[in-house]
Every structure is written in C-alpha cells, then in structure tokens.
C-alpha cells in the first residue's frame, strides 16, 4: 500500500520562514493542495501579514504568527498557540534560514555564529520536538521537511559557519527518519532537502559551479512538494550535488580539492557573494 499523500485535504501544515521566498511558495502550494489550515511563521510581522492576505479566501484557513525562531522561548510560546488555536500540524516544513558568507575569522560571535546555528540548526530541532510527540500519538500520515543544503555535504570557503549548520541538520534529520522507522512510527516521513544555489536573493552574488546553474525557486518548491508527499528520505538538487558528493567520497582530499577548486569552481562560488539586501 502506497504511503504517498494524494493531497492535503483536511490537513494542517506549518511553514517557517513563510513571509517571502520559497516559504511563501510552499504556503501557496498548500492552499492549492486543499489544506484545511496553513500556519505561517516568520519574524517579519509586516511581510507575514501581506503573505497571509494573498492566500485568504482561497479555501484554506490561514494562521499567521510572528515568531523569532532563534529563541526557544518564542518557539515554545508560538507552538502552544498553534496547539490551542489550530491543532497539531500534519506537515511541518522547517524552511527558515540565514546565510553569512565570509571567512570564519571575520564572523561576529553573536550576529553571525550564534544566529546562524540558532536559526539554521537548533530551531529545526526545537520546533520539531514541540510537535512530534503529538504527531506520533495522532497516528495520522504526517510529513516533516528539513531544509538543509548542498553546503552540508561539501565544505566550501566563505561558508564555514553556514556549512556547519547544515551538516548538523543533515545528520539530525536523517537520524530522526531512522528513529521513527525503528520505533514503528511509519506514518511519519522525514525528507531532508539538500539544494545548491537557488535564485531567491538569499545567495545574491554567488556563482553556481560547473554544470550547476542557480535554480528557479518555483521549480524547486514544486519538486520538494512532490518529494514531501511521496515521503522521499533525501532530495539533492540539482544532479551535480549527487555527483560531487560521490566524487568527494572516493577521491583523496588533495585530488578532490583540485577537482572542486579548479574544475568545478566550487571553491570560488562565494567569492562575489553579497546576500539579500
């Protein structure tokens, strides 16, 4: 029997980083896929309300919460509001993230290192921990999508802190998948998403490595949506991410540094990074 979700009819979906970019795209897909409730979390209250207004009146009930996911106390308070006002999510998309593109020694301890690890890594764990026990107890077909990065698979200059945050997400997320399976909670599927650069503005100025152009957000979100519904364990995009990961696994480090640095141009991809203004 297939465990693929045909649609989200009657279900509740929660998306972090939902006020703009791919987070908002996921929310639009949820509405189009007949979700009963779409819960939007973002730190930017003004943009969040604009995003919510775009979706209201189209079928799903939209619930917008301004949340700073870098703070555990904010996550706990917002999660309790969701439980009280909406109910336990059936689908959780941990999408919120930030990037700092600079050499490690140039990072500010709090604004860069603490913020990156708090938002990109710890927030995913805290948010999932808030809802997972009730998702397990509910016994419904459920999904968790954790947005990692190709940077969590391959080291890259000017991405040391960002890469470390995403390496941690991949290890935690795939371990969680295995734990749920081992414990017999097969109704909950975890998808770890590892993309290369996407044209959202977050990586403005970055250059895609050889054969790896910056991807279009709409096409990416639709592919992630399909993977979520199918319960795909790990999604890497584009195909060159899998190739690079395989080569990194078999080549000696010195040889891989030549291939990545001189052939594919991976190590130069962040040289002109400016990020979102």
Automatic annotation (TrEMBL):
Oxidoreductase is among the record's keywords: yes
Keywords for the protein's UniProt record, in alphabetical order: Oxidoreductase
GO molecular-function terms, A-Z: oxidoreductase activity, acting on the CH-OH group of donors, NAD or NADP as acceptor
CDD domains xrefs: 17beta-HSDXI-like_SDR_c
PROSITE patterns noted in UniProt: ADH_SHORT (PS00061)
Pfam family, one: adh_short
InterPro entries, sorted: NAD(P)-bd_dom_sf, Sc_DH/Rdtase_CS, SDR_fam
Family the entry assigns: Belongs to the short-chain dehydrogenases/reductases (SDR) family.
Name of protein: 3-oxoacyl-ACP reductase
Organism taxonomic ancestry: Bacteria, Bacillati, Actinomycetota, Actinomycetes, Micrococcales
């Amino acid at each position: 029997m297939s465990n693929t979700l045909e649609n989200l009819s009657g279900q509740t979906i929660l998306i972090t980083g939902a006020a703009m970019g791919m987070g908002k795209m996921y929310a639009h897909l949820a509405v189009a896929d007949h979700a009963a409730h779409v819960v939007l979390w973002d730190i930017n209250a003004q943009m969040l309300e604009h995003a919510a207004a775009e979706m209201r009146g189209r079928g799903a009930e939209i619930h917008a919460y301004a949340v700073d996911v870098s703070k555990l106390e904010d996550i706990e308070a917002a999660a309790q509001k969701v439980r009280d006002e909406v109910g336990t999510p059936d689908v959780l998309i941990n999408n919120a993230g930030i990037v700092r593109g600079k050499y490690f020694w140039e990072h500010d301890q709090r604004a860069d290192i603490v913020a990156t690890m708090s938002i990109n890594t710890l927030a995913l764990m805290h948010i999932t921990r808030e809802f997972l026990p009730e998702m397990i107890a509910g016994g419904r077909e459920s999904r968790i999508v954790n947005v990692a990065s190709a940077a969590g698979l391959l080291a890259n200059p000017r991405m040391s802190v960002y890469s470390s945050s995403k390496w941690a997400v991949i290890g935690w997320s795939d371990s969680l998948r295995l734990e749920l399976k081992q414990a017999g909670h097969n109704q909950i599927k975890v998808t770890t998403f590892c993309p290369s650069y996407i044209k959202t503005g977050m990586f403005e100025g970055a250059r895609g490595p050889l054969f790896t152009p910056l991807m279009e957000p709409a096409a990416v979100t639709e592919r992630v949506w399909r993977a979520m519904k199918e319960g795909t364990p790990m999604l890497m995009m584009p195909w060159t991410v899998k190739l690079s990961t395989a080569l990194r696994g078999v080549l000696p480090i010195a040889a891989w540094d030549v291939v990545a640095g001189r052939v594919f141009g991976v190590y130069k991809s962040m040289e002109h990074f400016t990020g979102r203004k």
